Amino acid sequence: xxxxxxxxxxxxxxxxxxxxxxxxxxxxxxxxxxxxxxxxxxxxxxxxxxxxxxxxxxxxxxxxxxxxxxxxxxxxxxxxxxxxxxxxxxxxxxxxxxxxxxxxxxxxxxxxxxxxxxxxxxxxxxxxxxxxxxxxxxxxxxxxxxxxxxxxxxxxxxxxxxxxxxxxxxxxxxxxxxxxxxxxxxxxxxxxxxxxxxxxxxxxxxxxxxxxxxxxxxxxxxxxxxxxxxxxxxxxxxxxxxxxxxxxxxxxxxxxxxxxxxxxxxxxxxxxxxxxxxxxxxxxxxxxxxxxxxxxxxxxxxxxxxxxxxxxxxxxxxxxxxxxxxxxxxxxxxxxxxxxxxxxxxxxxxxxxxxxxxxxxxxxxxxxxxxxxxxxxxxxxxxxxxxxxxxxxxxxxxxxxxxxxxxxxxxxxxxxxxxxxxxxxxxxxxxxxxxxxxxxxxxxxxxxxxxxxxxxxx
Amino acid sequence: xxxxxxxxxxxxxxxxxxxxxxxxxxxxxxxxxxxxxxxxxxxxxxxxxxxxxxxxxxxxxxxxxxxxxxxxxxxxxxxxxxxxxxxxxxxxxxxxxxxxxxxxxxxxxxxxxxxxxxxxxxxxxxxxxxxxxxxxxxxxxxxxxxxxxxxxxxxxxxxxxxxxxxxxxxxxxxxxxxxxxxxxxxxxxxxxxxxxxxxxxxxxxxxxxxxxxxxxxxxxxxxxxxxxxxxxxxxxxxxxxxxxxxxxxxxxxxxxxxxxxxxxxxxxxxxxxxxxxxxxxxxxxxxxxxxxxxxxxxxxxxxxxxxxxxxxxxxxxxxxxxxxxxxxxxxxxxxxxxxxxxxxxxxxxxxxxxxxxxxxxxxxxxxxxxxxxxxxxxxxxxxxxxxxxxxxxxxxxxxxxxxxxxxxxxxxxxxxxxxxxxxxxxxxxxxxxxxxxxxxxxxxxxxxxxxxxxxxxx
Lengths: 458, 458
Prior knowledge:
The structure is a homodimer.
Chain A: E1 2-3, E2 6-9, H1 13-25, E3 31-35, E4 40-41, H2 46-49, E5 60-61, H3 63-70, E6 73-76, E7 79-83, E8 88-91, E9 96-98, E10 101-104, E11 108-110, E12 124-125, H4 131-143, E13 146-150, H5 154-164, E14 169-174, H6 186-199, E15 202-205, E16 209-213, E17 220-223, E18 228-230, E19 233-236, E20 240-242, H7 245-249, E21 273-275, E22 282-283, E23 290-291, H8 296-309, E24 325-330, E25 333-339, H9 342-347, E26 352-360, E27 372-380, E28 386-393, H10 397-409, H11 414-418, H12 436-457
Parallel strand pairs in A: 1-9, 2-3, 2-10, 3-6, 10-21, 12-19, 13-14, 13-19, 14-15
Antiparallel strand pairs in A: 4-5, 7-8, 8-9, 11-20, 16-17, 17-18, 22-23, 24-25, 25-28, 26-27, 27-28
Helix pairs in contact in A: 1-8
């Protein structure tokens, strides 16, 4: 029987970070990562493999070298059972390995709609984090002339745009009234839809697929309204489900959506077993309610917490809840959201004020590569605390969204943003006198002031 | 005699923002801006006029339209005297205008080294915020073949790089051992110097100019070591001095460097007179000491404070000190600094820990337009509070620097950054597992931990 101190199952973002940071701060402990994938893909890069990047070979995280350098053991195998009583795992190869601490970073799998007739036909593809599967899918999709993508979340949107670059006719179908509507308010999703349409992706929202038809292999889809759409390839991007089968088998509680239940230090109910990333439950930072967020960036934040708390709990190093920070890009246009959207604020009955501003992200605006920059802030009306934002602009949007993410995590008051000092430069940011983030704050302060005056009049 | 409620002297960043925000929250008050410049330039865009932008005509803030839309009166004239007792100003045109509140946003002027022989010859140029002067200078510099730029602060560096784009031989001379050394530590200034050299700008540091020689017009410079360098044009970018003559004449106290003394609400010693921007004193956020920072972004932050406090002081809307946030770019490479540099920390005897990481700003790193991203965090050792940073990378550097600026303003603890949640996207940011900002935080936490262990052993 082999032995290790910290055993990590999974080598994607979450597993990698638990191992790397854990080993760095516990250099005397032995760290072992077990992965069933021969190659570990950059998860968020996957849609870009189909267009911009061109091949999964350029989208690989070199974990062998990285782990070897850090003194972390890497084993290609699969854990098929956890024996919590004896603190051992059974591997597919038949080997047994003992652990002191265990971290589950088992990720997620694409959702398979078994209720959808034809979902299992040939030429129907999913987007798992699996190089072998994706290489085969890419080859076959490459030969298709007409592709239907079902489900307009991030993967569906990014895949559609990338595949369209290969001169294919691409149809993106979404049953909800807006694309990306679980992440963005219509302010942003409408802009993204317009960009997709302008680039030639045929987007249809509010349409429900009734079945996939075809003999042997898929030949198209039938919509609820009776429309038949033909295609050579169909991609199902209808979300992901936590891969928690191993945890369930080991008797670790999962929630009603299958996420492994964890505490604020990322511990499961077994204090020697941690869970991070797509397989672990996330609680929303304001409501405390469970949310089905799956992001590599969230996985990494959780993994850092787990690593810091592996040996001895550190009270300050706990999570106050998940602040979902999403970003995406279509060509040179970026989109981002952090914290609550208006839809979410309404759902929980929070009274809020929005501040909106649109300007240019360079100054003067005639500079090459200038893009319009739109910022919407969402501020809790009773406290003045910033709780959410949406940003649209050029490719600096990802970092602008992170700036607001940091404000939300610091529970920053809108008055502190109004007087905040920022740095600006013609080639990199908006003008200091019309910096959209600050102008949006001004809009909030103005609205709050107008409201308080109205109250005084009453 | 004309009358107004709020009179603002100066129409650049500071004056514009006092007027815009002030009028928005005090719609019943009359706001008047007096400017002596026929056109108001985007201040930070000036160096780019000489290369990328091509003409000052494309670098103008359309204040006429903006003020008209907001209901702000705009007068082209010059205030030559302030009568504080009667709350009136005398204009160059002979008119008198009464005010209720006055805001000085009189800016700064290039430093003229009157001790330097030849400084007043023809073909010697300064870079003031003056369209008429700059248009003439641009025309003449455009005809020069060899240009010497004296002083490698931001203006000197940016001007040299832009002018070099016009296929001129450009020499940039700096007396200190490093370029930009008042803003950046050598980590960054060495990188910028290397980029300038690689692009063909001839940079020399540690050289002192003894005189400018030439009959009638400048023909070159003589260095301290006897070297003679010939040139057709010489640009003096040796810093700026606050334009506080009007304030001094009115008996308002200025500090030893000529900056108008203001309180935390941007009021001068006369509570009806505010001062903002380059002419107003700035106190450093940690030491409280006066610092000669001149940035349009700082001016705007001060102007927002002044606007909010014009009528009735709001306790929450005060400044805790200036956090200098600088950024600049050379081609597609960006550089930024927020808060204290190591040099400044050393000067005040602060014990600190640095955390450093360098990665790629896209993921996978093979994506087009990927740049290396370097982050150095400076953290106070006794408290763990983040007090400074330096960032080098692509053009998202400006916004990454702002993210850290917000952390500094929120007095964020390094442990909170370690567990911070960020958003990532292949086309816009570094990878979530190797996001330089978080990795640099990890480096700090690791160093603090190693140190505390050493203490335990003792």
